[in-house]
Amino acid sequence: MTFYTYMTRRYKNTDSPEGDLADDMYSDRERFPRNRPCKFRGWRALIRSYLERNGACNACLEVFEKCWEEYERCEKSRLRRNSLRR
Q: Relative to the CA of 69, which of 11, 60, 63, 85 has its CA 20 to 30 Å away?
């Protein structure tokens, strides 16, 4: 799952800082960078740089960092579960 998909499925339309970020990502869905599923290296910096270039405030960047760590943990756990099933 991409970070974009993770955020929009989990947080879109929720009343929270994470929801605000997901809603902003969704409203920018044509341009928002999307990593390939299971690809983490370098993407965190690329997406953060995109947010910074587009005027994200410090609070938004903090939410992004928290959500990225959560996303990476979730995806790595899912990948491990799937590899054990094979």
A: 85
How buried is 83 (Cβ within 10 angstroms: 0-12 exposed, 13-18 middle, 19+ buried)? exposed
Work out the average pLDDT over 19-38.
93
Output the average pLDDT for the chain. 93
Distances (CA, A) of 9 to 5, 53, 57: 6, 25, 23
Helix crossing, 43-53 with 58-85: angle to 10°? Answer: 150
Closest to 4 in 3D by CA, of 22, 17, 16, 18: 22
Question: In the predicted model, what is the mean pLDDT of residues 51-75?
Answer: 96
Q: What is the DSSP string of 21-75?
A: HHHHHHHTTTTS--PPTT--TTHHHHHHHHHHHTT--HHHHHHHHHHHHHHHHHH
pLDDT given for residue 86 in this prediction: 63
